Amino acid sequence: KTIIDAHNVSKTFNPDTIPVHAVQNVHLHIEEGEFVALVGPSGSGKSTLLNMMGGLDSPTQGTVFIDGVEITKLPENRLIDFRLHNIGFVFQSFNLIPVLTAKENIGFVLQLLRMPRVKREERVLTLLKEVGLENKLNSKPGELSGGQQQRVAVARALASKPKIVFADEPTANLDSKSAENLLNIMAKLNKEEKITFLFSTHDQRVIRKARRVITLVDGKIISDIEQTPS
Ligand code: ADP
Ligand code: ADP
């Protein structure tokens, strides 16, 4: 089953002054359950492409279907709602709310999803267990290591049970041991819960774990290969 279907997607920043063609005529087809690395030099358009696939940014041209829904034609309020229910995001800089505990950072999303309090408590615990942090429920981001913060961010991304998670350089701020641990958790979620992952990275050790590697240069896909993860 197709989960991402992007057709002829382009993004040009500053079209009226000094145009930057960040993404150019990209076609992308990803099946449910894939574990895909998006690689390429800095400035090649990885973030822009991820943001457009995830409905955080709109293309200047082209269409994006996520799980059969054409997100590029949804009005903003419907798009926000679709994102909240169907898409998880993980960012390089974790983006946790510093004044909230791990539990509250995740509970907050469940509250947006209108989950009742008792169910919320249960779900937060399940999610934190999945990333090995059930003992850090009441810790604030500042009290956690980078690796632990990113694991909270992954748990938060999974709060709505999305079929797909986009991760933009999720290991960029992690030491190699934490990076490997994070990738192992993502691979486990991919395998056991069939969650599709599309993550950008520079890190060779992370690229090795992917089953498909898509390379972007100057906003264009220059290669798309299947590999055996190691
Ligand atoms: P990557 O994630 O591969 O480093 P980006 O998607 O961040 O690449 O950037 C692709 C190109 O688009 C770069 O030339 C970058 O400077 C440009 N760019 C990204 N975001 C903006 C923006 N908001 N306004 C103008 N140019 C941008
Ligand atoms: P940090 O989070 O401190 O950057 P790691 O993410 O590598 O570092 O994890 C720190 C320790 O937590 C590891 O040595 C490991 O034993 C334990 N740990 C990490 N992930 C899990 C998990 N999913 N389940 C249980 N224990 C874990």
Automatic annotation (TrEMBL):
Family annotation (Pfam families): ABC_tran (PF00005)
Concerning InterPro entries, the annotation shows:
AAA+_ATPase, ABC_transporter-like_ATP-bd, ABC_transporter-like_CS, ABC_transpr_LolD-like, MacB-like_ATP-bd, P-loop_NTPase
Keyword annotations from UniProtKB, A to Z: ATP-binding, Nucleotide-binding, Transport
Source species, domain of life: Bacteria
Task: Report the protein name in the record.
Answer: ABC transporter ATP-binding protein
- Which family does the entry's similarity section mention? Belongs to the ABC transporter superfamily. Macrolide exporter (TC 3.A.1.122) family.
| Any GO MF annotation of the entry | transmembrane transporter activity
Q: What Gene3D superfamilies does this protein's entry cite?
A: P-loop containing nucleotide triphosphate hydrolases (3.40.50.300)
Coiled-coil ranges per the record? none
Where do the ABC transporter domain residues begin and end? Answer: 4-230
Q: Name one GO cellular component term.
A: membrane protein complex
SUPFAM superfamilies per UniProt: P-loop containing nucleoside triphosphate hydrolases
